[in-house]
Amino acid sequence: MPTPAWSNPELEMLRDTARRFFAEQVTPHEKRWDAQQHVDRALWQQAGEIGLLCASIPTEFGGAGGDFRHEAVIYEAQAEANNTSFGIQVHSGICAHYFLKYGTLAQQQRYLPAMASGELVCAIAMTEPGTGSDLQAIQTRADKHGDHYLINGAKTFITNGHLADLILLVAKTDVSLGAKGISLIVIETHELAGFKRGKLLEKIGQHGQDTAELFFDDVQVPLENLLGAVEGQGFFQLMQQLPQERLIIGVAAVAFMEQAILLTTQHVKQRQAFGKPLFDLQNTRFTLAECKTEAHVARVFIDDCIARHVSGTLDNATASMAKWWCTEKQCQIIDRCLQLFGGYGYMSEYPIAKMYADARVQKIYGGANELMKELIARSM
Q: DSSP code of 326?
């Protein structure tokens, strides 16, 4: 991929480090991780040792002291490696920033350094069996009893849920207040009575990604585990942080479509049909020309979003645009690229087949694309 306009030599050095990490520590183990449905626990510590976790968290809390650009080059390197199993975006790009933005100093000092080192793996638990994008409809409750909360409920589709030592739980601390009664509670899972992990969920793609169900049955958590120490701020906190989550999804979408085009171009220049390379056929050339143009438009858009986010000017509507449009284009372009592989594109050993299956959920998580359009329309 071309060097983005927002990059610099330091960021490109980080990109090279991330590329080597994925090539040496991730790619060789992908098939095994697909079979066990999660990465090895040791991978988190390996990533932490070389500074790939919490890259945009200040050094005073154990992070690398960078900004969102540092996260972006890591996620782009991950997409170039065609990897979706390592839930680094949720851990570093999402969860860590809830602690940084809203956590008390004690919470920041307790959790962020351990997240940056890989000692603690973090997940955020929003979705429930009966609710998807409608966060106001969650049923999980955190009722105050003396010096602790009593938590009851269930969550599903939780990335990093199987390995998570730390969970940011979205729960209702006051069911009478609707959205204003939602809070985020920090759950430390080690030997926690009443907490249970369900089965690892079988998905049509992203097989190696740790995705689990979580259950809370009279789980007792100290009141001091309320994120930010003020009840009822959860919905506001979520709305403030979701634009970064959606931008992360858009960043990955663009990197994946660029990688799909590169792999397909290499394939059609080598593959023979009717006595000549597939690339010499006009349909092949025109299809790739269209894909290349659309990917370039997406790259210019996402690079502008990254620059705006770093400067603090990326609004919610534009982040929603990036999420829905880039993921739609990701799915469309990968589908067209797979077609140029012919029957081989349907074989799981070919990277394009994995890209095809992995891409589909991009239009669902982080807020379904239909919701993105509604949020855009509300800004008009």
A: H
Tokens of 95: 């969860």
pLDDT classification of 335: cutoffs 50, 70, 90: very high
Take residue 145 and report the two structure tokens written for it. 């009893």
Q: Which residues contact 356 (CB under 8 A, 6 or more apart)?
A: 205, 334, 335, 338, 345
Tell me the fold of 123-232: Butyryl-CoA Dehydrogenase, subunit A; domain 2 (2.40.110)
Residue 254 has phi, psi (to 5 degrees) of: -65, -45
Q: Which residues are catalytic?
A: 245
What are the C-alpha distances in Å from 38 to residues 144, 148, 168, 277, 355?
A: 35, 32, 20, 39, 18
| Residue 367 identity | G
- What is the rounded distance in angstroms from the CA atom of residue 159 to the CA atom of residue 175? 26
What is the value of pTM for the model shown? Answer: 0.95
Beta strands 211-222 and 148-159 are antiparallel
CATH superfamily of 236-378: Butyryl-CoA Dehydrogenase, subunit A, domain 3 (1.20.140.10)
What is the rounded distance in angstroms from the CA atom of residue 33 to the CA atom of residue 354?
A: 14
- The size of the chain, in residues, is 380
Pick from 170, 138, 25: nearest CA to 88 = 25
